[in-house]
Amino acid sequence: MTKPAPKTFHVKSFGCQMNVYDGARMSEMLEAEGLSASAGADDADLVVLNTCHIREKAAEKVYSDIGRLRRDDGSTPMIAVAGCVAQAEGAEIPRRAPSVDIVVGPQAYHRLPALVRAAQAGKAVDTDMPAQSKFDVLPARRKQGPSAFLTVQEGCDKFCTYCVVPYTRGAEVSRPWQAVVDEARALVDAGAREITLLGQNVNAWQGEDEAGRAQGLGGLIRALDRIDGLDRIRYTTSHPNDMRDDLIIAHKEVATLMPFLHLPVQAGSDPILKAMNRSHTVDSYLRVIDRVREARPDIAISGDFIVGFPGETEEDFAATLGLIERVEHALAFSFKYSPRPGTPAAVMEGQIAGPVMDERLQRLQALLNSQQHAFNRSKIGIRMPVLIERNGKKPGQRIGKSPWLQSVVIEDGPELGAMVEVDIFAAGPNSLNGVITG
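Given the sequence above, the corresponding structure tokens read:
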């Protein structure tokens, strides 16, 4: 039976900032096709679940999300599963969940409008990784809030033993210089004052500028710095082995490049890093941190940590705590190791018992949380520029971002998109409170 063409849609994105970017681009494509965005899934004709495979038991959670889309009368909207779980599971998804109409991987979502049309007659699955860049056929950016994401690099060639990204996002690919510059200009024209450059290994970006000269991410940032109206530049996520000289020097010389670096190390033990196939050592990581801090002394360091990787001893874990104490993180994300099907680590000997991982994670997070709170408290009494990004919970309350990526809460704040000078008078574990000067 032919299904009616959807008139409304809702995109729900899970996981990383690249998924947020991809979800926004899918929304733009559907709006360009004449569909209207719905505030939620309940009243949407088409629901897109933009999935992330990093979550523990990610595939099973997707099936739970699909089940929750069934409505009181037994009907379901047209359902599309996109993202990394779609890439990994493929045609298995509609076999297990017949209510799913569309499956589309992260390298093929530019075909979503055509898949929606095809799904009116039957199931539509596309998990190809086409040679043609999807960015070439995505619609132009038309509207944007004060802060925007911009994907410049996708995929990963590192093959960490715990990670599925090389299999779901493909090999490392850098978008062309001019394409990135043009999209950045379009974002600024549409209202963005801050742009965060995204990539699985964003600092692996490489290309040629308009003069044919080889450039790394540092050179690209310098080009974006010349765009009128772009006040702030950030980038994430980086790999320690790709922190090249040009990028480190850019932190010293480019005023719009914010003093924040997310540089995941994952563990503080060389044997565990080797088992993870991380390709850096504790010493090489710390030397990078020291060089970055020499270039930009006030920089905030952020990281990722995996607790309980197969074979991790108490001595290995103690070494990770030692590294954290040495670096002093402003922000960090930490997780218990969980096996991903098909990855080498999933079948390694020495899998760590759950209670041991739980206890180690609590100790590690207590240290990280204390460091984050201390970093926030260090900003009390500081005057800083804050970019107002969204409304707070109270009338007139605004929330913006500090140069160090902290949320700053302001009572009776200005309009969204304003850049204001703020005096910080209080700091909590996750945010700052400030008052506009003057």
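The CA atoms of residues 79 and 99 lie 7 Å apart. Try to locate this feature in the token string yourself.
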